[in-house]
Design a protein that fits this description.
The termini are close together. It is built from 20 helices and no strands. It has 466 residues and is an all-alpha fold.
């Protein structure tokens, strides 16, 4: 007989709600940018500083979460993060200038950086292995749904209530989350007073800042600026590598890199990073195709991509039973294969393609990405011992943040290279987008190879019912 489950669905739902709130605010400004620019007296493109400020603050904050959680406790840190994020959301709504908005977004990003991984840690510490899959199912949907919902929601709120409302909606959620956190987040007497690895933090946080900023430049610029962004990404990779080297020689490193020796964790966070990268990038690539090549409006493209969101939701009830039936390895292998095939099919899709066919492909893409994302998010923790959960959680959050930042940049590179080459040949961007889909599909070969290295019974104890 197995041990009695301590899985708290209330706690998981609470943390999932804060995940959704944080993920939503990462991109919701995009479609509200024109309205905000009019009020601030700037160009819409200038609003990118507020988006980048948020992402950079998240990148700086995440690496410190493991040490802070050990030093102050999960409950105190999570509740504090909710307060910081909520107050910062109010400051964003009240900001009279773009500069003050960017400053408030930095504070909001710091709150989000702590709220997300610490919230997940609160859930992981209370979950038995056989309940891990169910718990992670609750925590997976925000990362899948928020990037798809954010553009449409941001545009709707900006056009109706006003752009301030995209931040004000966080206030009631934050207040409810804080009250619920007081009830649901368990108290813990565990504290570890170890020195803070300042050098490790500086190098890792610097790496994330360089990668995030460089990725944003590459995704939104061309020419010399894009080259500069690529240099920043390379410098970030170098800083991260140096940080890993330095931390291996520390008695109390910022990250415990030894968790990468755990095969399931390594596969999910190294080769699996490329799967997450494409998960983030695919809706962006679909939207660009529909707007730039097909000539659709932003609203029309956004509505079409909502089919991805519907696929995510529709498959959720059967995702956990499917993983229990097939096992992690088979699910990961087939998620990468089918996901790659769907992207490759878009090579044959042009402006005259029937709308039902497009919607079916987008829906199926959402189904596959939901299943694969759930499997990766769960299998990364199935073999991590309880005393190393904090270290594994923070390292996973850091690697996932880097993958998220790079996703849009890599798609931009694919599109720019493809359209440039196609323009030289045909004078039309369609062929270039087709090549971009080929490159995106080929990228999934990397996580496919990683998944194939897993043993057939990987994570068996997490899918077996007691």
């Amino acid at each position: 007989m197995g041990s009695r489950s301590t899985f708290s669905r209330g706690l998981a739902l609470l943390v999932a709600a804060t995940f959704f709130m944080e993920n939503l605010d990462a991109t919701i400004i995009q479609t509200a940018a024109p309205a905000m620019a009019r009020d601030f007296g700037v160009q819409p493109a200038d609003l990118s500083v507020a988006m980048v400020a948020y992402l950079l603050a998240v990148g700086v904050g995440i690496p410190a979460t493991a040490w802070l959680a050990d030093r102050f406790g999960v409950r105190v840190l999570f509740l504090s993060a909710v307060v910081v994020f909520t107050v910062a959301s109010l400051l964003c709504a009240l900001a009279p200038t773009l500069g003050l908005l960017a400053a408030a977004r930095v504070l909001q990003g710091i709150g989000g950086a702590l709220m997300v991984p610490v919230g997940r840690l609160a859930v992981l510490r209370a979950v038995t292995p056989t309940d891990l899959l169910d718990a992670m199912a609750y925590l997976t949907w925000p990362a899948l749904l928020a990037p798809v919902v954010a553009p449409a929601l941001g545009g709707l709120l900006a056009d109706t209530v006003g752009w301030h409302s995209i931040f004000l909606v966080n206030l009631p959620i934050g207040v409810v989350a804080f009250i619920a956190g007081l009830i649901l987040v368990p108290r813990s007497a565990e504290r570890r007073r170890v020195p803070f690895d300042g050098w490790g933090f500086a190098l890792v946080a610097g790496a994330l800042v360089l990668v995030t900023a460089g990725a944003e430049v590459v995704a939104t610029s061309s020419g010399v600026a894009a080259v500069g962004g690529a240099v920043a990404i390379a410098a970030g990779v170098g800083a991260g590598s140096l940080g890993a080297f330095v931390m291996r020689r520390r008695e109390h490193p910022l990250f415990d890199g030894s968790v990468l020796r755990i095969r399931t964790f390594r596969v999910a966070n190294v080769s699996g990073a490329f799967y997450r990268l494409m998960i983030v990038a695919a809706p962006f690539l679909f939207t660009l195709l529909f707007q730039v090549v097909f000539g659709w409006s932003a609203f029309g493209a956004g509505l079409a991509v909502m089919a991805v969101f519907i696929g995510n939701v529709a498959i959720k009830p059967v995702t956990t039973p499917l993983i229990r039936w097939l096992g992690f390895r088979r699910v990961l292998v087939w998620s990468n294969i089918v996901g790659g095939v769907i992207l490759a099919v878009f090579v044959a899709v042009g402006p005259t393609a029937p709308l039902p066919l497009l919607l079916a492909l987008l829906f199926l893409s959402g189904v596959v990405r939901s299943i694969g994302f759930s499997a990766y998010n769960t299998v990364q923790f199935v073999d991590v011992p309880p005393d190393r959960t904090n270290a594994a959680n923070t390292l996973a959050s850091t690697l996932q943040q880097a993958a998220t930042a790079l996703g849009l940049a890599i798609v931009a590179v694919f599109v720019n290279l493809g359209t440039w080459a196609a323009g030289e040949w045909t004078g039309t961007p369609l062929l270039g987008y087709h090549w971009a889909f080929v490159l995106a599909a080929l990228t999934l070969v990397i996580p496919l190879v990683g998944a194939l290295t897993l043993p057939a019974d990987a994570g068996r104890h997490a899918v077996r019912r007691a």
